[in-house]
User: Fold Cathepsin K from Caerostris extrusa.
Amino acid sequence: MKTFIFLALLSVASCKSIDLFDSQLDDLWERFKKKQLDDSSWKTKIAEISRHNLEADLGLRTWTKGLNKYSDLSPEEQRTSMLGYKLPKDFVSEASTWLPPMHAVVPERMDWRENGFVTPVKNQGDCGSCWAFAATGSLEGQHARKTGKLVSLSEQNLVDCTKGNDGCGGGYVALAFHYIKNNKGIDTEISYPYAAKDENAISKFHSGGYMRLCGSSKGDEEALKVAVATVGPISVSIAAASDMFDYSKNGIYDSNKCKNDTKSLNHAVLAVGYGTENGKDYWLVKNSWELALVTMDISKWQEISITCVEPHVPLMYNMNSPPERRMEGDNFCPEGVLWVLSAFIYCKKETKALIKNFKRINK
Assistant:
């Protein structure tokens, strides 16, 4: 009887050991498969970059690829940590129609960095807060244009406080402008530093001024070009293709992987200029992915790859009195205002003539 009990206990212990061993084996197997998959993906990435750069050397590509700290991220990891554009389903814009200046002088080349209107490249980190960086970038440029002082503004303020957005889970640039309008201002980067995570709001800023919005439900590349030339750095939402993470800053980025669909919009950046290089038109774009080895901060994107479909122009006034009425021949908004444009663009060329018949809008 004692022998039987001993054997029974031994059998139970053996079964538990086998279960534990199986669990450990399963874990080792999963880790092995992941490593093999990662190794295979990495080798594929290296081969793809080499092939692309060879084609660039042969003149078949307008830009080169390179490795960086994001090269080993999966598409899902790229989406959650590097992007962050999210349009609320129930969002209703408060914007009215934005009209370009009637006699605007549009230079062939523009780079607002040369005017001191663009802060150094920032890093959104492992947080889908590109929308906040695009919003602050445009406001920083407008503040510099109005006051002559370039001040870095707080993305964390927007991440923590903007209602309707999801912080590091993604957001919409226009909602950030709405928050700034309702809050009557935004904190500086020094007073409210970036943490790359969702936190509780720690302060409120009151500027004594106010912001109102005007915008356009639709536009094109020419309208966006006029806005960049006459307004300043512009917040834009784009369809970021997977190969955008491999851009090495050399050449003019262009991709055949982006879809011609506004539903593909997934990232917000700052258009700081435009120009032509070797016969190719491009947008000069400030990103929020500060890289250690390969920089993607100020990128050149081929102009034909993006089209403005829905611009919004929030106007910030630095005075307490209401805006003046529009006069014949004037721009839609009077002097003394701070301009911001949030344009939503996707990867399809739709050339349209610049608006010829301007509607007279009075507020």
About this structure: The chain is about 30% helix and 15% strand.
